[in-house]
Amino acid sequence: MKNRQHIKWGFLFFFLPVVLWLFLLIVLPHLELLRLSFSKANTGKFTLDNYLAFFQGAHLLAHLCTYCRIFDYCYLPGNGHFPPSLILYLEDSERANDRCTDDSHPGPFLGQ
């Protein structure tokens, strides 16, 4: 008997729209933006002038300051609380372990 591959039509029916959606609405616009970033505005010829203008002059400092502000406003409030909360958690877990090993302190269940 020949070993023939069976096409799973249900998988293609549901998977093909997802792939088309991702390609047409995410991948294709990003490729177009990448192409436009390397082309001159009026002529459409390949150039690195856009990137050279970004890394020269006062624009670079302004962008770096903006990225630092984004880091300060977005990253630190969300993740800056981690070290203090970790310290408090470790201290509290040590106290909880001390309470659980103490025989004079009754446990949470009856008969302990």
Task: Describe, in plain words, how this protein is organized in 3D.
This protein is 70% helix and 0% strand. It is an all-alpha fold and 112 residues long. It folds into two domains: 10-56, no CATH class; 58-102. The radius of gyration is 30 Å and the shape is flat. The mean pLDDT is 76.
What is the count of DSSP helices, taking H or I runs of 4+ residues?
A: 4
The low-pLDDT segments are none
SSE order: HHHH
Whole-angstrom Rg = 30 Å
Describe the main β-sheet briefly.
none
Shape: flat
Mean pLDDT metric: 76
Q: What fraction strand? A: under 5%
Overall structural class, as computed from helix and strand content, comes to: mainly alpha
> How helix-rich are the residues, as a percent range?
55-70%
- Strand segment count: 0
Query: How many structural domains are formed by the residues?
Result: 2
User: For the terminal residues, how far apart are their CA atoms?
Assistant: 68 Å
